[in-house]
Amino acid sequence: MRQLWVYKLIHQYDYKADEIDLEKGVQFGTEVGTKAADIIVYTDSTKVTPKIIVECKNPSERTVLSSSKAT
Fold first, then answer.
1. Which of 18, 13, 20 is closest to 50 using CA atoms?
2. What is the gyration radius of the CA atoms in the chain, in angstroms?
3. How far apart are CA 31 and CA 25, in angstroms?
4. Spatial CB neighbours of 42, under 8 Å, sequence gap ≥ 6
5. Using CA atoms, how far apart are residues 40 and 10, in angstroms rounded to an integer?
6. Quick one: which of 48, 38, 42 has its CA closest to 15?
7. What per-residue confidence (pLDDT) applies to 62?
């Protein structure tokens, strides 16, 4: 799945390969490097500022979403 999206990002959406990283640690809030994004597209080849963060999932996996109601 990941290879398909990298291919699409480069050939269909015209992003440059040197602006893309795979399995890169990212910062979410105050946690630094504790999670890795599958694909990160940066604004340029210096790879300082992320433009797009992609998380790939196997199509056979099902995600269950739940919500809670305030009473």
1. 20
2. 15
3. 10
4. 19, 20, 21, 48, 49, 50, 51
5. 12
6. 42
7. 59
Amino acid code (one letter) for 38: D
- For 31-56, letters b (16+ CB in 10 Å) and e give eeeeeebbbbbbeeeeeeeeeeeeee
Tokens of 32: 């630094």
Q: How many CA atoms lie within 13 A of 30 on its CB side?
A: 0
At 27 the pLDDT is: 75
Spatial distance between the Cα atoms of 32 and 24, rounded to a whole number of angstroms: 11
pLDDT in tens, the chain (71 residues): 789 999 999 999 999 999 999 998 877 777 666 678 899 999 999 999 999 999 888 777 655 544 444 44
